[in-house]
Every structure is written in C-alpha cells, then in structure tokens.
Design goal:
single chain, 399 residues, 8-stranded mixed beta sheet, 18 strands, 19% strand
Length: 399
Amino acid sequence: MARPVCGGRFSRLGRDGSTPSPLFSPSPLFSLALALALAGTVCRWPAAGATIAGTMATTTALVRNRARHWAFEADGRIRCDVCPRQCTLREGQRGLCFVRKRENDALVLTTYGRSSGFAIDPIEKKPLHHFFPGSRVLSFGTAGCNLTCSFCQNWNISKARSFERLQSEASPEDLARMAVAHETRSVAFTYNDPVIFLEYAVDTARACRNAGIETVAVTAGYIFGAARREFFAPMTAANIDLKGFTEDFYRRETGAHLAPVLDTIRYVKHETDLWLEVTTLLIPGLNDSDEDLKRQCDWMLTHLGKDVPLHFSAFHPAYKRTDCPRTPLSTLTRARSLALSAGLSFVYTGNARDPTGATTYCPNCQTALIVRDGYTIEQYRLAKDGTCPDCGARIPGRF
C-alpha cells in the first residue's frame, strides 16, 4: 500500500528525488510535461506543429479516429448509438457531445489521441476508497460531454467547443508506457466523461491492461447497449456519478434521464467484474432533501447491496449554478448519517475536510481501518487479505 503525500490540486510526488527507471525513451518535451505533472502542475503538450519525438503516432491516430456504434437512418442521416440521445447527423454535423462528428459519410471521434491535460493523483481523488488505497493514478481526459449539467464542476473542459483545450497528444501505447515508467497503479479516464471518447478510452485501457496497469472509468454512466458493453469490458474499476434521484432533476439540470444511469449502475454491478463505487454531488436545494436521499439509499441497498461504497461530495458554485451556495459540511454529514441508517456499510464525504467521513470503518466492529485526512492516508490497519485485524470481517474491495 503506497501512501500518498498530497497538497494543492494534485498530489505532489517524487519529492525524495528518486526517479523510476524509464521503460521507454521520451523526448525532452515529453519529459518536461511529465515532470510538471509529478510536481502537481496541470500539463499540456506543445501546440500543434511542435516537434514531438515520433510525432506521437499522429498518422496512426488519424486511422484510429473512425468511430464505432453508429448506423444509417432511412433518410440518410447517421445515428450515433453510444448514448441514449442517439443523435442523428447530416454531413459535417456533430453530436451534442461535440466530439463525435459525421465526416465523409462515417462517424469519427475528433478527439482521438488528444488530451486536455494529465496529472498524477491519489486514487482517493477519483474518488475510490476501496480500490488499492493510497496508490497513484495517471489521470487524463479530453473535451466535451453528453450531458448538459447546469452545475458542472469541470465546465471549462466538459463544455469546451474549441480544440484549444486539446494541446496534448498521446497514443494509447504512450499513456500505458508513461504509467508503467512512473509506477502508477492505474490510469483513470476522467475530467470529462470518457463514454464520449469511447474508442480512445477502450484502446488505452487495453494497452494499459496489456502492460499490467489497472484502468478506472469516472463516468456519469449515460451510455447503453453494445457501446456500454464495449466501454466497460477493459476497465477494472468505475466510479459512477448518480447526480440525483428524480427524473425531474435529471431532465431539468442535466438534460438527460435517470433510468439509463440506473441501468448502467446495475449493469456494472451485476454483469461485470469491475470494482464499483458511486458518487453524488449534493447541491443545496436541488438534490439534497431527506426524501430524495432516502429513496436513493433504499434503491442502492435493494439493487446493489450494502457494500457498494457511496460518496457524498460538496458542490461549489460553478457554470450556470453560481446562484447556489457551497454545500455545507452539515449537509454531507446528514446525508452520510441517513445512508448508514438505511443500511449501507460504506458511506463517505468529499470535497470538504471531514476525517470521520473520509475514514473506512469495519461495518462489523466499527474499528477505524483506513484513516484519511483529505487525500492523505494517516493510518492503514487493513490486513493484507482485506480483513479487519480486530474481528476478522472481510472488507469488500481491491486491496
């Protein structure tokens, strides 16, 4: 179990001066960008046209950007079948996500091989508390989103309608080699929803799995059918955002529907072997009522069981919801108490300092097993076989 030392926006790693032995030979530009990431800085590649060793497989990316999961409609339009929106496109048009485009009578992924930046984080930031706690994860995303959340916390990336955000270039193999060379346990597809860059995410996940690297999907779960099966197949863990628990909230605040998200959560739990955790961002006055929270927790208990970890995260005013106040800690602790009372075993608080809400307790004897302060692990008492050292109860997760 690696212990992270965290500060600021990203974890600060490698301060002992040690450098892992690289398993590939990066260019000076690549090394500089990675050094900045290890220092806790959001990294971006040079603008298009700059010299990067090997051109980062640009030609291959052009071939790879052909999208999957689409079909022709009777009227000649192309229908994208990645998410329940099923956007229908004429030549030159893009889907609501902005990154899937009809081009030369085919659907292409315009962001394949391009990233809005990357960083090395503690796994707890995703958040995942039962998936190799204390390990490091290489995080990256692209741009765009298939939801229209009024409260988006990463709106400058997910709502981007310009490729100015996509200054980094990296093939799936580049990302896998980088993760291996710098000893991260996993790679996370995050910042914006990876279902919209499915082909890039899947190819990267396969390259990572071949290199012995775990793969994490951080997603709102708005995906269905064959695309859902393909997307989750090479993943080893997922944190799914359950943004609220009423159809009205989903329709009004996200431009989507609740049912497909619940279907995805059930699918991941019961039809895959992924490790699953769920997160709900609590927005004062919008999705934080006792009634909504009780209904959500009852649904989770009935359909997922008591052992799927649930995270309640604090909202900060952003995008179109600057009229809402920050979520007070009292709301997070109230939600956690309701969830525990409903019978869920592992309930956490996030985006606010709350050591009690961040700590993993044994549900059998209530012993504190993994004591956290923010993203830092202060004490780790879990046995190597994932059991409580005091009562022997097995704690679900990947340890």
